[in-house]
Design a protein that fits this description.
The complex is a heterodimer.
Chain A: E1 11-12, E2 20-21, H1 34-52, E3 69-72, E4 77-80, E5 83-85, H2 91-111, H3 114-119, H4 121-137, H5 140-148, H6 153-179, H7 184-193, H8 198-218, H9 220-226, H10 229-236, E6 242-246, H11 248-251, H12 269-273, H13 293-305, E7 312-316, H14 317-326, H15 334-342, H16 352-373, E8 378-384, E9 391-392, E10 398-408, E11 416-422, E12 428-431, E13 435-436, E14 442-445, E15 450-460, E16 469-477, E17 483-492
Antiparallel strand pairs in A: 3-4, 4-5, 6-7, 8-10, 9-10, 10-15, 11-14, 11-16, 12-15, 13-14, 16-17
Chain B: E1 5-6, E2 15-20, E3 23-26, E4 30-31, H1 32-51, H2 68-92, H3 95-100, H4 102-119, H5 121-124, H6 149-158, H7 184-197, H8 204-217, H9 219-222, H10 248-257, H11 272-283
Antiparallel strand pairs in B: 2-3
Classes of the chains: A alpha+beta, B mainly alpha.
Protein name (chain B): Cbb3-type cytochrome c oxidase subunit
Subunit structure (chain B): Component of the cbb3-type cytochrome c oxidase.
Function (chain B): C-type cytochrome. Part of the cbb3-type cytochrome c oxidase complex.
């Protein structure tokens, strides 16, 4: 049994490998091109949104925050333009997150890791930090030289100014985060004058530090080691998804630009521009965030060589295999390239998985829209006393106590609503501290954007013999007799 | 320890030598900074153990001397200081005045609920539902000593038969059989009459025999028709609420051996503000008069 199995791959006799690897710093080279331009545009738009949105105002009347987007933790309200949510309506936020997740699945199954490569905050801020680094320390070669050289005055000057710039961006990022939870002008002034709360400074420091560390130092390691998304993106992608890939059928064998070699001249431009430091020519890899910068880099080289662009391209694995099959046995050259490209078919966008994702998205949108349309601005909650379950009165009657909470989610006039009890004839309803209308019904008053609480007592006189559990309904009626809200409860008594 | 390291033919990566159904685990090295982060957590824990009370040994508080228990009094003092102005106001006015002031009433109901749960609920139950065997419900409309703000306040302050004051809430019912005031047969007849007061079906002859006995022995406190007397804590006998049970045996036992429930006096034990708050809370349970 201790014989080595014959099919076992070759083994070598090296000592135990180290269990831990030092980080190899990735020094991406600057690149110009179509994908890069799109990335710049996305970066500018997203960062502008992040930093500017808290400063947008939205008039909601006196006494109400006028910030367009605000999570007001202290008053337990979420303001988004004309929408104002209470904590118990957090499911709208959940719905938005569900939509975001399924949308991510749908986009990924069609176009690959667009989120990772273009819009993920980790990518956007890392891109920004790399741009700063490039402005100060120079491009890839200059940086490598700087890091390998002596730590002289110039080294200190460049490193200090880079880190200072990074820290500035990080502080702006941490500061903007706070503004989503506080009134932006107020908290900014407080932050600058040292008058903000310890909580504000704590979160400011936390988000400054995470921005600085994640975008400055951790970078691609966040994607490779920390983020769960690369792990399960494999379940989102299939042969029909567009992924960043190297057309090996056209590039191989790589080498000198002559007739004996494919189109890849092994210039390593794609490797040098990669922000995660991988070689796209090795095929699909967990580390690849699908940013497509290698596409730009390779296209640039191909243009200089007078060859067709698209040696590295957004391509489906299905087409890659089809081209591969079509050019089998052909020598490198224009004929092979043409044959490979001819074998491609348009991307199949309508597939079971995209249909299912679209269906789920439509379903969630419909559900949320419905929930939003039917959202009650006036709610009544009825909590029946548990202790005592019921009260035996001197005359043999039975009384139940209820706590009524009347939540009014609108701002404006206070409503005065009559409380009506629907149940067996003869039940008597009284509400502590409530006025009465002309018909003798208790009047409950709502509070502007708030909750009023009332204690109601319902009594069954001795003659009314009810079971141990009788359903009753509380109803709030406005001045015109219209029922605004109903709530079911029960009237308990002894078993008879 | 494998002496021969296998290399995966596709990635060129060394494997751990583990294999599950043909799947082999690549021996991907952990990033060093990850390891250092792990060491940093160990250092953090060590520093924590030195600075804070992390070792469950009596007297060990760590170098900072900080304990959660030690920090509590300061927090409690701060809370007391915060409540002090409100409590001072609650001490100065009567429970009735508190109930009339929305601000004081809201505070008193919240404070009274907690005070009631801490001090009263043990006997009277959460929500004041009472318990059979002499613990009256405070949520119904039947009161032994009265359900006005003033009466509730007096009962809480002096207790019932607490020996704290001769003036208030000290009267007890005699044990008619033990003291020889009534014979067992007379006790039974009286019990039948008492049950008839609340409309029970009992033997008419016994009721007639008991009528005279009741008038002589019981009516002075419980009233001619069993309407009770709150000055003496004599319960109503003509209603449907029975503190010690409404069956004949329980009533016989009450007459024969007496019942004298005891409640401690809370004056001196509770802050006058708290007595006021509990008064307001109990009054609001449903039976306040």
């Amino acid at each position: 049994m201790n014989q080595i199995a014959p099919d076992r791959p070759k083994v070598d006799q090296k000592p135990e490998p180290s269990l831990y690897a030092s980080h190899q710093k990735v020094q991406p080279r600057a690149v110009k091109g179509r994908v890069r331009n799109i990335k710049w545009a996305v970066l500018v738009v997203l960062l502008a949104l992040y930093y500017v949105v808290p400063w947008f105002r939205w008039d909601r009347g006196p006494g109400v925050p006028d910030q367009a987007v605000l999570v007001d933790i202290g008053h337990a309200r979420l303001f988004f333009l004309w929408i104002e949510l209470w904590p118990q309506e957090v499911y709208f936020l959940t719905g938005a997150l569900v939509l975001g997740a399924i949308g991510l699945f749908a986009v990924t199954s069609l176009y690959g890791r667009l989120w990772c490569g273009f819009t993920c905050p980790q990518t956007v801020w890392t891109d920004l930090f790399m741009w700063v680094e490039r402005r100060i320390e120079g491009d890839r070669n200059a940086r490598i030289k700087l890091d390998q050289g002596a730590k002289d005055g110039r080294w200190w000057k460049l490193k200090l100014s880079k880190h200072a710039a990074w820290l500035g961006i990080a502080m702006a990022t941490g500061g903007a985060w706070i503004m989503y939870f506080n009134d932006a002008p107020t908290v900014t002034w407080a932050l600058l004058t040292g008058q903000a709360s310890a909580t504000v400074y704590g979160f400011f420091a936390l988000f400054t530090a995470t921005t600085y560390v994640l975008a400055g130092a951790a970078r691609e390691q966040v994607c490779t080691y920390m983020c769960p998304w690369p792990r399960f993106q494999g379940a989102m992608l299939d042969d029909n998804s567009l992924v960043v890939t190297y057309r090996d059928w056209r590039g191989e064998p790589r080498g000198k630009p002559d007739a004996a070699h494919g189109d890849c001249v092994d210039c390593k431009a794609c490797v040098h521009v990669c922000p995660t430091g991988i070689d796209i020519r090795d095929g699909q890899q967990l580390e690849c965030i699908g940013c497509g910068l290698c596409v730009d880099a390779c296209d640039d080289v191909m243009a200089k060589l007078g060859r067709d662009k698209g040696l590295v391209a957004f391509e489906t694995l299905k087409n890659l295999a089809a081209s591969q099959a079509a050019v089998a046995g052909m020598p490198p050259g224009p004929a092979r390239n043409a044959a490979g490209m001819a074998a491609r078919v348009p991307q199949k966008k309508i597939r079971p998985r995209t249909l299912i994702y679209s269906g789920v998205i439509l379903g969630v949108v419909a559900l949320m829209l419905g929930a939003w349309m039917l959202r009650a601005t006036l709610t009544l909650s009825v909590e029946r006393d548990r202790a005592p379950l019921f009260v035996q009165l001197s005359d043999g009657g039975i009384r139940n106590g209820y706590t009524l909470k009347l939540a009014n989610k609108t701002r404006g006039e206070d409503l005065h609503l009559a409380l009506v009890l629907d149940g067996p004839q003869g039940l008597l309803l009284t509400v502590q501290d409530a006025g009465e209308d002309a018909a003798g019904r208790p009047i409950l008053t709502t509070r502007d954007d708030g909750i009023t609480q009332w204690r109601a007592l319902v009594t069954a006189p001795p003659g009314l013999r009810l079971g141990d559990n009788t359903p009753v309904t509380f109803r709030l009626v406005d001045g015109s007799g219209r029922t605004l809200v109903t709530q079911r409860s029960a009237f308990m008594g002894p078993r008879r | 320890m494998p002496t021969k390291i296998e290399k995966d033919s596709i990635t060129g990566q060394e494997t751990t030598g583990h294999e599950w159904d043909g799947l082999k685990e690549l021996n991907t090295p952990l990033p060093k900074w990850w390891l250092y982060t792990f060491y940093a957590t160990i250092v953090f824990a060590a520093v924590w153990v030195v600075l804070y009370p992390a070792i469950p040994v009596q007297g060990w508080t760590g170098l900072t001397g900080w304990t959660a228990r030690g920090a509590l009094p300061a927090q409690m003092d701060a809370e007391r200081a915060r409540q002090a102005p409100m409590l001072a106001r609650l001490r100065e006015v009567s429970a009735e005045q508190i109930a009339a002031d929305p601000e004081l009433r809201g505070f008193a109901l919240a404070g009274g609920r907690v005070g009631f749960a801490n001090n009263c609920a043990g006997c009277h139950g959460a929500g004041g539902q009472g318990a059979t065997g002499g613990f009256p419900s405070l949520a119904d409309d039947d009161w032994l000593w009265g359900g006005s703000f003033e009466a509730i306040h007096t009962t809480i302050s002096h207790g019932v038969r607490a020996g704290e004051s001769d003036e208030e809430r000290g009267i007890a019912m005699p044990a008619f059989l033990t003291t020889g005031m009534l014979t067992q047969a007379q006790v039974n007849d009286t019990a039948d009459f008492v049950l008839s007061l609340s409309g029970r079906n009992v033997e008419p002859a016994a009721v007639e025999r008991g009528r005279e006995l009741y008038a002589e022995n019981c009516a002075s406190c419980h009233g001619d028709g069993g309407e009770g007397n709150r000055d003496m804590g004599a319960p109503r006998l003509n209603d449907q609420i029975w503190l010690y049970g409404g069956d004949r045996a329980s009533v016989v036992r009450s007459i024969a051996y007496s019942r004298a429930g005891v409640m401690p006096a809370w004056r001196g034990r509770l802050d006058p503000a708290m007595i006021n708050m509990i008064t307001v809370y109990v009054h609001a349970l449903g039976g306040g008069e």
